[in-house]
Amino acid sequence: xxxxxxxxxxxxxxxxxxxxxxxxxxxxxxxxxxxxxxxxxxxxxxxxxxxxxxxxxxxxxxxxxxxxxxxxxxxxxxxxxxxxxxxxxxxxxxxxxxxxxxxxxxxxxxxxxxxxxxxxxxxxxxxxxxxxxxxxxxxxxxxxxxxxxxxxxxxxxxxxxxxxxxxxxxxxxxxxxxxxxxxxxxxx
Length: 188
Ligand code: NI
Prior knowledge:
By secondary structure, this protein is of the alpha+beta class. The chain has a single domain (about 5-180), classed as Peptide Deformylase (Alpha-Beta Complex). The protein is about 20% helix and about 25% strand. It contains three helices and nine strands, in the order E-H-E-E-E-E-E-E-E-H-H-E. It has helices spanning about 25-40, 135-145, 160-170; strands spanning about 5, 45-50, 60-65, 70-80, 95-100, 105-110, 115-120, 125-130, 180. A five-stranded antiparallel beta sheet has the order 2-3-4-7-8, sandwiched between helices. A two-stranded antiparallel ribbon has the order 1-9. About 35% of the residues are buried. The structure holds nickel (II) ion (NI). Nickel (II) ion (NI) binds near residues 99, 100, 101, 141 and 145.
């Protein structure tokens, strides 16, 4: 197991669809171990393979809800069904989202409140999770990574322009930047 560099927006691997995982072999299992360790140290509640430069359609997540229930797993070759999102005004606090590949920034984004995730686990078995609230948001965020979409790509104005300005100001949005959890102290 090793901590992996997290690539920053502008790296092409973040902006294209990921390749399906052909089979869950030892290489994939080692990759998933690296991803859990990297996510934990970052720290983050989700991490997709493209974020460590790996062109695989898989993500990991680990989040504890308000009741203390831990939601932790691996989603290999996932599909996601979304309930239509609310049309209420955006809440600039409650709907703040961040990403380890856009470190230090947060912007509000409307997501669907309910989703259905279907994916394969490390044993090669398919499972389905009906998720709501923040877990649904995590799944949408990580699933987007596998489509080559970052949450900042989905922002509405004025946040879209704010995000573009911030990324430009930080010097990102071009290939070649990454950070290493445990060495570089950035926040997702
Ligand atoms: Ni992200």
